[in-house]
C-alpha cells in the first residue's frame, strides 16, 4: 500500500462524493460548497488538475454519477435542494446548442464564468426530500438513472432523447418502505410490508420530510443530534444497480432504519416488486421478502439502524451475486445472493422460484458507522470507509471467506519516518 | 510483496495521534472511491451523513489523497512479467489442445516432456532475473522494485517444484535423493567456498577448528571431491590410524553409487547394498581403534570420523545430531535422509520423512520461501500455492497453472467461490497485473484462461482500457505518433482501439468489441469527427447509433450553417459507399445518411451558383422519399430562393407541383396538431420564434410557389392546364 498522489485543496468545504469516470482518468467531485469539479489526471506525472468547476446546485451536492461513455460525457448530480441535474460536457464550439424546453426543465443556466464546458441538460424535480443518491443504470438498459431521496422513494428516469438529453421520463416511482413483496404461498404468514419505522400515511410522511429537508438545506450549520431515533435517519439512503443484464433491471435500495436492503425488480410490464430483503437481524438470513419486515416487530427487538451504503458487485460470470452493505450499526456485510433457479419449483405454490441470500462476511472492524462500501471492477476487492477514519479493503479466499486486505488512514503516523518514506512517493499536486 | 495487509497513513495527516474521535465529532468522516483504471483509491475527508456538518472554515484544506494497493511494476519486473507470459501462453496452447484431444493425451510422454521443458523455462527465467537483479541492484542502490533475493526465492521454489513434481518422464517412481541433494547444493551452498579456501591454504588444516565441521558437511552434502581432497591432507597427520582410515574412506566417498549412473534401479539398489557393506567394514575397523589413539590433542578425531561414517551408514540419529550441530535446517536433514538413510526414498514417501523432521525442527513461519518449500516437501501443493501467493502472486499463478496441467490439484471448482484452485491464483495474479494499466494485454490473457469468471473479468478490464481517442489530434511529439494519429483520422483503426479490437477477435468477445466501438463512435461525435464516428458505429453494427451520428451531422446544418455542414458531410460521404455494400446495414439509418449526403450536395451546388442542378437535387430528395418529414419545411424554405430566381425557371412544372404537395401536407398536418413532427427542425433553425415564425416562413414559400406557377402559365412551360388551374386554385 503506497500513497501515489494528493490534491491539496479540492473544495472550499467538505467533499461529499468523489467518483472516477469509466476509465479512471477523470474524477468528478462535489461538495457542501454546492459545486462540482471535474479533474483530469496528467498521466505523465500522476497529478490531478481541475478541468472544470461550477456551481451546480443551491444546496449541498450529495452524490454524483457518470453515465456510461457510449452515451457521451454525462454526469448526474443529486442534491439536498431536492433536484437531480443532468450535465453534459460539450466541445467549446457547440456550447450554444443546448436545447431549451423539456419536461419541467428550466432554460439551461450558463455555468460559472462561462468557461465551463459542462452544460445543464435537465433538472429532475420530482423528489420531495433531499436526494441522497443517484446512479446511472448499466448501459445495456439504455440511458437511465435511479435516484433515492429522503421521501423514501426510488425514482427511475429514462432519457427519451439521447441527442439532446433534455427529456427524462419518470418511468418508475417506488416507495421503498411500503413496497409490497412478492406474494408467497399461504404457509408463510403474509404481513404485507408495513414499514417498521412507522410513517403513518404517505402525505404525513412526506410533509414532515419536506419540513426536515427545508430545515436541513436552510440551516446547514445546525448541529444535528447524532445517533438513532433521529428523524433525519429516515428516508431512502442508498441504491445500487445489478450490473448484470441477464436478470433484467434490478436495483438494491436501502431505506429507513430497518437495517435491511430491498432487492427490487423493475419491469416495464408490471409494478416493481421486491425479490428479496437482505435483513441481517439475528434470524434466518436472506428471507423471502415479506418475512423480513414481520420479524422486526417480534422477538429480540433489534436496535434499529440505517444501512447507508449498498454496493452490488459486478457479477463477472459468477453463478451468484455479491452485495455489500455498510450501516450505522458499524458493520460491513457481504451477501451472497443466489438468483432464482431457471425452472420454477413445481412443488412451491404459485410456482415462484425465489431469490435467496446469506451473509458470507460480517465485519465490525470499523467499530462505528460505515459510510461507504464499494467494489472494484471485477467484484474481487471491497472497500469500506467508516467513522473510525479508516478505509478498509477486503478480499476473499478461494473458499469465499472474506478477509481484511489492508487499510488506509489519515492519522499522523506515530512512526514519523513512515510518513517521510511516503512523502518520497508523492506527487503533490498544485 | 504482500504489502496488502498493511496499514497506510496518508500524508499530510488530518488527524493528530489519538485524536480520531475529535475528527469524527466535528462532523467529518473518511470516504473513498475505487479507480477502475488500476488498484488505486481516492480517499477524502467527507461530511457525515448522520449529523449535519459544521461548515468548514475557508482556511481548512479539503484534500483528496490517492493511494494504491500495489506498486506498479518497474521496468525489470515488467520484462519478467512479459517474458514469462510467453511461457504461460505456450502451456495454455498445450492444455487447450488437451481439451480437444482428451485428458489422457496430457499424460503422454511427449506432452509431459513439453510441460517439463516449460517448467524448466520458468526456472531458468527466474534464475536469469535473479542474476540480473543482483547485479544491477549493486550498481544502483535499491532502485529495483524487487531485490535479487526475491527472485532467488522464486528460483528455489520453482526449482524444487520441478525436482519433486515434474521429473523426467518415467522417473516419477525413481529414488529422489540425489536430485534433491543437487537442488540443495545449487541453492543453499554449504560449506562456503571461503571456508574451503581458508583450509586448503593451511599446512595442518586439521588443527583449524573449522576443519572437521567442514569435512562432515561436505560429506553430508555428498561433495566427494572436496571430501577426498581434505582427507588426503590427513596423510601427514601424526596418527597412523587416522591416516589409514582416511585413506580407506576416500575411495568409499567417491564410489557411492548415484542413480544416474545406472540403467536400472535394480542395479543401483544392488550397488548401494554392496557399497553399504564396505562402509560397514570400515566401521568395524574404526571401532577397533583403541581409545587412547582417538584424540590428537586438538580434537577427538575419532568421534568426527565416526560421524562421517555414521552418515554414510545412514544412521538417522547421527544425521540429525550432525545437522543440528552444524546449524543445518530441516531441508538438509530431509535431503540427506534420502541420500544416506534411505537411498531408495521415493517422492511419495518423502512427506512422511519430512513431517517427522519438521516435528523436531519446524520451518520458519515468517519466511515464506521456507513455508513454500516445506509444503512442497510435504506433498501439499495447495498449501504451497497459498504461501506462494503471499510471497509473489506470480509464483502462485504459474505454479498453479503447471500443477493443474499435471493433475496435482483439484480441478473442480470450490463450491463457495465457484473457482478452482488454479483459476483462483491465476486471477489473483491478473488482479495484481491490473495495477499497471499498460499491462492490460497480459492481464486479460491470464484472465481469459480462467473459465467463465475469468472471461467476464477480462471483459471488464478490456472495456475499461482507456481508448485515448480524444488526444489523437493534439499529439505533437514524435513523427511516429503523428503518423499514428493521421492513420486514426483517416479512418483506420489504430493504436489502442486496434489492439483491443484484435484482442476481442482473438478471444471472440464480440459484445465487448461492439461496446468499445460504440464508445469510440460517441467520442468522435463529441470531437465532430463524424466520419470516424460513422465507421465505428457501423463496425459495432449499431444502426440506431449510426442514425444518431447522422442526426448530429444534420444538426450541424442547423447550428453552424450550410458551409460547415457540407464540410462535415464530406467526412462521412465515403462511408456511405461502404455501407451500401454491407447487406446487414439497416435501411432506415442508411436512408438518413443518404439524405445528409444529398442535402450537402444540394448546398454545395447552391454555393457554387449551380442553381439548375440544385433545384433538381431538391426535388429529387422529395421524389426519392429521402427527406425525413421533419426536414420538409427546411427544404421548402430552401426552395424559396430558387423559385424566386428571376433569370430562368429552375423547376419543371411537375417538380413545382411536388413542392406544392409537400407544402400542403406540412401545413395541413400542422393544422391537425402534428406540427412538432413536421416543423421541429425548422423551428430550431430559425431560433426563438417558434411555430408562428415558422408558419410565417412557410407562407412565404407558398407565395413564392404561387408566383412561380403564375410565371409558368405566362411562359407556357406547364403541362396539363386543368391540373394547373386546380393547383392555382389550391394556392
Automatic annotation (TrEMBL), chain A:
Cellular compartments per GO CC: nuclear pore outer ring; Seh1-associated complex
Pfam families from the UniProt entry: WD40
Keyword tags: mRNA transport, Nuclear pore complex, Nucleus, Protein transport, Repeat, Translocation, Transport, WD repeat
Gene3D superfamilies xref list: YVTN repeat-like/Quinoprotein amine dehydrogenase
Compartments it resides in: Nucleus, Nuclear pore complex
GO biological process, one term: cellular response to amino acid starvation
SMART domains for this protein: WD40
Annotated stretches, region: Disordered: 95-115, 411-430
Name under which the protein is recorded: WD40-repeat-containing domain protein
Automatic annotation (TrEMBL), chain B:
Keyword vocabulary terms for this entry: Membrane, mRNA transport, Nuclear pore complex, Nucleus, Protein transport, Translocation, Transport
GO molecular function: structural constituent of nuclear pore
Classification via InterPro entries: Nucleoporin_Nup85
Subcellular locations according to the entry: Nucleus, Nuclear pore complex
GO BP term, pick one: protein import into nucleus
GO cellular component, one term: nuclear pore outer ring
Alphabetical list of Pfam families matching this protein: Nucleopor_Nup85
Record bears the keyword Methyltransferase: no
Record has Membrane as a keyword: yes
Main location: nucleus
Top-level taxonomic group: Eukaryota
Family from the record: Belongs to the nucleoporin Nup85 family.
Assembly and binders: Component of the nuclear pore complex (NPC).
Role description: Functions as a component of the nuclear pore complex (NPC).
Family matches, as PANTHER family: FROUNT PROTEIN-RELATED, NUCLEAR PORE COMPLEX PROTEIN NUP85
Protein name per its UniProtKB record: Nuclear pore complex protein Nup85
Lineage of origin: Eukaryota, Fungi, Dikarya, Basidiomycota, Agaricomycotina
Amino acid at each position: 500500500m503506497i500513497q501515489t498522489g494528493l490534491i491539496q485543496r479540492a473544495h472550499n468545504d467538505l467533499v461529499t462524493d468523489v467518483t472516477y469516470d469509466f476509465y479512471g482518468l477523470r474524477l468528478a467531485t462535489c461538495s457542501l460548497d454546492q459545486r462540482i469539479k471535474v479533474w483530469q489526471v496528467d498521466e505523465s506525472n500522476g497529478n490531478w488538475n481541475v478541468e472544470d468547476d461550477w456551481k451546480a446546485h443551491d444546496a449541498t451536492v450529495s452524490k454524483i454519477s457518470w453515465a456510461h461513455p457510449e452515451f457521451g460525457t454525462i454526469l448526474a448530480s443529486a442534491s439536498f435542494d431536492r433536484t437531480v441535474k443532468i450535465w453534459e460536457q460539450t466541445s467549446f464550439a457547440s456550447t450554444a446548442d443546448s436545447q431549451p424546453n423539456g419536461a419541467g426543465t428550466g432554460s439551461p443556466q450558463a455555468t460559472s464564468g462561462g468557461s465551463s464546458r459542462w452544460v445543464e441538460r435537465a433538472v429532475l424535480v420530482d423528489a420531495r426530500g433531499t436526494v441522497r443518491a443517484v446512479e446511472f443504470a448499466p448501459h445495456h438498459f439504455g440511458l437511465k438513472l435511479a435516484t433515492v431521496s429522503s421521501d423514501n422513494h426510488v425514482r427511475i428516469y429514462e432519457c427519451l432523447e439521447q441527442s439532446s438529453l433534455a427529456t427524462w421520463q419518470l418511468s418508475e416511482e417506488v416507495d421503498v418502505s411500503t413496497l409490497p413483496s412478492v406474494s408467497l404461498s399461504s404457509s408463510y404468514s403474509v404481513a404485507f410490508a408495513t414499514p417498521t419505522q412507522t410513517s403513518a400515511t404517505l402525505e404525513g410522511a412526506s410533509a414532515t420530510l419536506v419540513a426536515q429537508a427545508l430545515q436541513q438545506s436552510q440551516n446547514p450549520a445546525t448541529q444535528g443530534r447524532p445517533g438513532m431515533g433521529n428523524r433525519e435517519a429516515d428516508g431512502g439512503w442508498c441504491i445500487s444497480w445489478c450490473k448484470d443484464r441477464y436478470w433484467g433491471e434490478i436495483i438494491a435500495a436501502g431505506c429507513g432504519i430497518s437495517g435491511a436492503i430491498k432487492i427490487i425488480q423493475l419491469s416495464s410490464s408490471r409494478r416493481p416488486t421486491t425479490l428479496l430483503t437482505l435483513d441481517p437481524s439475528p434470524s434466518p438470513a436472506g428471507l423471502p421478502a415479506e418475512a423480513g419486515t414481520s420479524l422486526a416487530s417480534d422477538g429480540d427487538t433489534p436496535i434499529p439502524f440505517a444501512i447507508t451504503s449498498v454496493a452490488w458487485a459486478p457479477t463477472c460470470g459468477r453463478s451468484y451475486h455479491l452485495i455489500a452493505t455498510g450501516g450505522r450499526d458499524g458493520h460491513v456485510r457481504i451477501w451472497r445472493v443466489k438468483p432464482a433457479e431457471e425452472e420454477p419449483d413445481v412443488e412451491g405454490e404459485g410456482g415462484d422460484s425465489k431469490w435467496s441470500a446469506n451473509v458470507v462476511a460480517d465485519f465490525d472492524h470499523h467499530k462505528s458507522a460505515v459510510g461507504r462500501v464499494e467494489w472494484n471492477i471485477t467484484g474481487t476487492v471491497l472497500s469500506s470507509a467508516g467513522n473510525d477514519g479508516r478505509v478498509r479493503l477486503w478480499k476473499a479466499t478461494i473458499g469465499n471467506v472474506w478477509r481484511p486486505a489492508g487499510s488506509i488512514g489519515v492519522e499522523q503516523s506515530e512512526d514519523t519516518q513512515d510518513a517521510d518514506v511516503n512523502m518520497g512517493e508523492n506527487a503533490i499536486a498544485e | 510483496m504482500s504489502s496488502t495487509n498493511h496499514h497506510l497513513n496518508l500524508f499530510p495527516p488530518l488527524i493528530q495521534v489519538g485524536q480520531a474521535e475529535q475528527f469524527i465529532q466535528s462532523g467529518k468522516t473518511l470516504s473513498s472511491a475505487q479507480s477502475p483504471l488500476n488498484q488505486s483509491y481516492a480517499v477524502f475527508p467527507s461530511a457525515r451523513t448522520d449529523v449535519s456538518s459544521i461548515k468548514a472554515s475557508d482556511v481548512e484544506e479539503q484534500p483528496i489523497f490517492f493511494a494504491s494497493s500495489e506498486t506498479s511494476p518497474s521496468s525489470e519486473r515488467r520484462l519478467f512479467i512479459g517474458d514469462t507470459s510467453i511461457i504461460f501462453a505456450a502451456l495454455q496452447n498445450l492444455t487447450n489442445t488437451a481439451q480437444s484431444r482428451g485428458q489422457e493425451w496430457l499424460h503422454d510422454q511427449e506432452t509431459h516432456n513439453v510441460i517439463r521443458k516449460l517448467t524448466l523455462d520458468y526456472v531458468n527465467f527466474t534464475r536469469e532475473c535473479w542474476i540480473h537483479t543482483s547485479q544491477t541492484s549493486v550498481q544502483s542502490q535499491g532502485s529495483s522494485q524487487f531485490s535479487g533475493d526475491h527472485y532467488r526465492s522464486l528460483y528455489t521454489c520453482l526449482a524444487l517444484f520441478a525436482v519433486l513434481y515434474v521429473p523426467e518422464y518415467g522417473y516419477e517412481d525413481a529414488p529422489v535423493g540425489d536430485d534433491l541433494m543437487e537442488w540443495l547444493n545449487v541453492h543453499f551452498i554449504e560449506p562456503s567456498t571461503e571456508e574451503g579456501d581458508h583450509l586448503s591454504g593451511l599446512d595442518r588444516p586439521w588443527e583449524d577448528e573449522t576443519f572437521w565441521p567442514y569435512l562432515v558437511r561436505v560429506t553430508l552434502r555428498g561433495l566427494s571431491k572436496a571430501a577426498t581432497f581434505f582427507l588426503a591432507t590427513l596423510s601427514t597427520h601424526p596418527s597412523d590410524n587416522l591416516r589409514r582410515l582416511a585413506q580407506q574412506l576416500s575411495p568409499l566417498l567417491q564410489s557411492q553409487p548415484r542413480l544416474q549412473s545406472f540403467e536400472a534401479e535394480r542395479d543401483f539398489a544392488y550397488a548401494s547394498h554392496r557399497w553399504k557393506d564396505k562402509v560397514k567394514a570400515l566401521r568395524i575397523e574404526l571401532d577397533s581403534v583403541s581409545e587412547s589413539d582417538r584424540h590428537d590433542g586438538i580434537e577427538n578425531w575419532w568421534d568426527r570420523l565416526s560421524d562421517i561414517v555414521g552418515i554414510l551408514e545412514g544412521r538417522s540419529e547421527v544425521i540429525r545430531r550432525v545437522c543440528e550441530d552444524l546449524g543445518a535446517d530441516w531441508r538438509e536433514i530431509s535431503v540427506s535422509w534420502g541420500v544416506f538413510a534411505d537411498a531408495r526414498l521415493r517422492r511419495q514417501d518423502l512427506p512422511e520423512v519430512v513431517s517427522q523432521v519438521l516435528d523436531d525442527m519446524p520451518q520458519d513461519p515468517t519466511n515464506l520461501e521456507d513455508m513454500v518449500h516445506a509444503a512442497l516437501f510435504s506433498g501439499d501443493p495447495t498449501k504451497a500455492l497459498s504461501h506462494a501467493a503471499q510471497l509473489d502472486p506470480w509464483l502462485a499463478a504459474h505454479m498453479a497453472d503447471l500443477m493443474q496441467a499435471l493433475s496435482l490439484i483439484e480441478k473442480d471448482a470450490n463450491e463457495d467461490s465457484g473457482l478452482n484452485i488454479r483459476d483462483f491464483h491465476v486471477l489473483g495474479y491478473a488482479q495484481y497485473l491490473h495495477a499497471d494499466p499498460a499491462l492490460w494485454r497480459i492481464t486479460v490473457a491470464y484472465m481469459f484462461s480462467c473459465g467463465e469468471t475469468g472471461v467476464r473479468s477480462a471483459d471488464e478490464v478490456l472495456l475499461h482500457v482507456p481508448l485515448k481517442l480524444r488526444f489523437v489530434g493534439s499529439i505533437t511529439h514524435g513523427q511516429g505518433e503523428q503518423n499514428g494519429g493521421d492513420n486514426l483520422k483517416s479512418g483506420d483503426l489504430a493504436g489502442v482501439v486496434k489492439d483491443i479490437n484484435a484482442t476481442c477477435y482473438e478471444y471472440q468477445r464480440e459484445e465487448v468489441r461492439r461496446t468499445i466501438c460504440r464508445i469510440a463512435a460517441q467520442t468522435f461525435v463529441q470531437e465532430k469527427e463524424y466520419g470516424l464516428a460513422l465507421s465505428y458505429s457501423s463496425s459495432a453494427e449499431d444502426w440506431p447509433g449510426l442514425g444518431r451520428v447522422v442526426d448530429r451531422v444534420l444538426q450541424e446544418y442547423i447550428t453552424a450553417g450550410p458551409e460547415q455542414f457540407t464540410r462535415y458531410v464530406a467526412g462521412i460521404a465515403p462511408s456511405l459507399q461502404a455501407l451500401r455494400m454491407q447487406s446487414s446495414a439497416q435501411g432506415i439509418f442508411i436512408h438518413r445518411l443518404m439524405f445528409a449526403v444529398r442535402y450537402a450536395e444540394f448546398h454545395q451546388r447552391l454555393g457554387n451558383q449551380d442553381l439548375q442542378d440544385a433545384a433538381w437535387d431538391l426535388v429529387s430528395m422529395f421524389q426519392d422519399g429521402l427527406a425525413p418529414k421533419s426536414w420538409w419545411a427546411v427544404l421548402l424554405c430552401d426552395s424559396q430562393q430558387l423559385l424566386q430566381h428571376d433569370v430562368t425557371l429552375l423547376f419543371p412544372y411537375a417538380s413545382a407541383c411536388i413542392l406544392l404537395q409537400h407544402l400542403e401536407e406540412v401545413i395541413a398536418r400542422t393544422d391537425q396538431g402534428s406540427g412538432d413532427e413536421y416543423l421541429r427542425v425548422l423551428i430550431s433553425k430559425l431560433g426563438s420564434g417558434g411555430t408562428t415564425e415558422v408558419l410565417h416562413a412557410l407562407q412565404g414559400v407558398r407565395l413564392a410557389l404561387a408566383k412561380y406557377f403564375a410565371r409558368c402559365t405566362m411562359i407556357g412551360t406547364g403541362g396539363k392546364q386543368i391540373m394547373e388551374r386546380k393547383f392555382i386554385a389550391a394556392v
